[in-house]
Design goal:
This protein is α/β, with parallel strands linked by helices. A hairpin with a 5-residue loop joins strand 3 and strand 4. Helix 1 packs antiparallel against helix 10, helix 6 runs parallel beside helix 7 and helix 9 crosses helix 10. A six-stranded parallel sheet has the order 8-7-6-9-10-11, sandwiched between helices. Strands 1, 2, 3, 4 and 5 form a five-stranded mixed sheet that branches. The protein has two domains: 130 residues, Leucine Dehydrogenase, chain A, domain 1 (Rossmann fold); 139 residues, NAD(P)-binding Rossmann-like Domain (Rossmann fold, 3-Layer(aba) Sandwich), CATH 3.40.50.720. It has ten helices and eleven strands. It is globular, with a radius of gyration of 20 Å. The chain starts with a helix and ends with a helix. Bound molecules: 2'-monophosphoadenosine-5'-diphosphate (ATR). 2'-monophosphoadenosine-5'-diphosphate binds next to helix 6.
Length: 281
């Protein structure tokens, strides 16, 4: 999606994927910086490690405690730090690395665009409290959902997450486990577990404790397969549904804007992403 976006904007930039041993992450970041890279994306397990490996953290990386995007900034003659899109032809004498996180914004952009969910005042059931679940819970709380129900296999993680939400966003009511009141609808159910990635995985939802009739919309962060059995069941029950491709798209579009300083051509990126993820499989 990034290469399609560079081509559309006429930028002579390239995006390439490299597999990096976590033990060599610091050296890899320094190497990219030395080679004049504009920036990097990082994925599991590098997002947490990179927090201590960049020169500066943007507020987004501080809030979520993880870095998925690095921008290399150059110091210009007047002394200010400029993104790579503004360097011109001369390489800057001094370069620093800045860590950002675009995952949380990507999720919210996708929920709005793909499910037309209004998060303020919504009642949300979140399945999963790993890395992705934690970020989603905190972001939803910051978007002023009214009630957040947390479900996770390892109970200790939702206790910890509830405490963190109560400290940072005290107005949000946090429930442990499924909603007891089965008459008030849940506006949105999110799967942030890894269940559904593999064929034959059990459902992340305990249907003895929650039925799809109680829900209006379902979002599965998994995008491959395009429709998990869980999402299919939600759709069959009449819920609005979307998979996590929009989250991948929007975190990428935000990263593109961080590196280039230009508006991301989101439509082109979506088409390229769709073609690469689904048409080639
Ligand atoms: P990510 O960064 O993608 O969130 P993660 O931090 O490993 O990955 O989190 C995976 C999530 O899927 C967790 O909520 C995990 O539950 P635990 O916290 O109990 O580990 C959940 N998960 C993974 N396999 C599971 C399984 N077999 N049954 C239930 N939940 C599972």
């Amino acid at each position: 999606m990034h290469n399609a976006a560079f081509a559309t904007l006429g930028l002579n930039w390239r995006y390439a994927a490299c597999e990096v041993d976590p033990a060599k992450l610091r050296a890899a970041i320094a190497g990219a910086q030395a080679m004049g890279f504009a920036g990097l994306n990082l994925t599991v397990p590098h997002k947490l490690l990179a927090v201590d490996m960049v020169d500066e953290l943007d507020v987004s990386a501080k809030v979520w405690g993880a870095v998925n995007t690095i921008r290399f900034e150059g110091r210009t003659a007047p002394g200010d730090w400029r993104p790579p899109g503004e360097w011109g032809t001369d390489s800057p004498a001094e370069v620093r690395s800045v860590g950002f996180n675009t995952d949380a914004d990507g999720l919210v952009a996708s929920l709005r665009e793909d499910l037309q969910v209004t998060l303020a005042g919504a009642r949300v059931l979140l399945l999963g409290a790993g890395g992705a679940g934690r970020t989603a819970a905190l972001k939803l709380a910051s978007e002023k959902v009214s009630e957040l129900f947390l479900v996770n296999r390892t109970h200790a993680k939702i206790l910890e997450l509830r405490a963190e939400i109560q400290k940072k966003f005290p107005a949000v009511a946090v429930g442990l486990g499924y909603p007891k009141d089965t008459n008030t609808p849940i506006d949105l159910v999110i799967n942030a577990t890894s269940l559904g990635l593999k064929a034959g995985d059990p459902s992340p939802l305990d249907e003895r404790q929650f039925t799809w009739q109680q829900a209006r919309a379902a979002y599965d962060m998994i995008y491959r397969p395009a429709e998990t059995a869980w999402l299919q069941a939600a759709r069959a029950a009449g819920c609005r549904t979307a998979n996590g491709l929009g989250m991948l798209l929007h975190q990428g579009a935000k990263a593109f804007e961080i590196w280039t300083g230009k508006a991301a051509p989101v439509k082109v990126m979506r088409e390229a992403l769709f073609a690469n993820i689904y048409a080639k499989s």
